[in-house]
Amino acid sequence: MSGLLRRSPWRRPVVLATWTWLYVAWMFVPVVIAFVFSFNGGRSRSVWQGFSLRWWTEDPNASFLHDESLHSALRNSLILAVLTMLIATPLGVALAVGLARWQAKIAKGANWLMLIPLVTPEIVMGASLLLVFSNLYTGVPLGRPAQLLGHVTFSMSYVVVVSRGRLLSIGRDYEEAARDLGATAIQALRMVLLPLLAPAILASFVIVFAMSIDDFVISSFLSSGASSETVPVRIYSAVRTSSTPALNALASFLVFSSLFALALGMLGMTAYRRRRGGGDGESVLTEFAKFEM
């Protein structure tokens, strides 16, 4: 009997849970250490010299609160991430819907082409984009315009993959049912398909924001100098010269920004599911039928 209990598939997955928590610790312990050293009293980023808010607010020149170069890098990262999110997500969703509804054989080739940015080494893409903007699209200046186009280029593929997965699970039945109820193609897309795609759209917003704000390679290749430095580029350049725990404070703020975006996405998803009663297709069609009546 005891042997059967040990082999029971319903027992608590102790080993799996242990490995999961070990992985979580492996990921977050370095982040926690960096955050703790942002409160270090001295200039060292590896030797603890006492607790202090010097590198957050107290130092009049080098603290995170008073260093304008850190503010500029953070501002550039946030603006670039928000613009990339607002541009890449709608374009990626539209492209995913078009590829899902495209019945020609060439559509399969287009689907494979969308995966190329996912498997291309980022340093290759960064160098290629630099050559393109320097020699071909010379009307696009290096700096934020080129960085924005570069971020949109590599992040759209992630939106397409997420949205295509949701589209495959939805199928075409709900759209066809809406058409049977008298909806036009545009109405079926706007009032049925897009509400069903809402979870994938919210997830795409969060993914694009997190990837853009953390990107280093493309932002570095397409930067035009200090005026377009992002947080990752600023941290890298400062580490090679004279770094202080103020960089830890900047990095901590960047991590909290990503976590805040993730929390907003989860709250939005929860609110959507509550409002839609789970967000299933039947509820969407019911609302559409009431609207038509």
Shape: globular
Give the CATH class: Mainly Alpha
Number of strands: 0
Q: DSSP strand (E) fraction?
A: under 5%
Q: State the distance separating the first and last CA atoms.
A: 63 Å
Kindly give the count of domains.
1
Average residue pLDDT: 81
Helical percentage: over 70%
List low-confidence stretches: 287-293
How is the CATH topology named? MetI-like fold
CATH H level, superfamily name: MetI-like
Tell me the quaternary state: single chain
Secondary-structure content class: mainly alpha
H and E string: HHHHHHHHHHHHHH
Return the CATH architecture.
Orthogonal Bundle
Rg: 24 Å
Q: Could you walk me through the main structural features you see in this protein, from its secondary elements to its overall organization?
A:
It is a single chain. This protein has helices at 2-6, 14-37, 54-58, 68-101, 106-113, 116-119, 122-135, 144-170, 173-180, 185-214, 217-221, 231-239, 246-276, 281-292. The protein has 293 residues and is mainly α. Helix 2 (14-37) packs across helix 13, helix 4 packs across helix 12 (231-239) and helix 12 packs antiparallel against helix 13 (246-276).
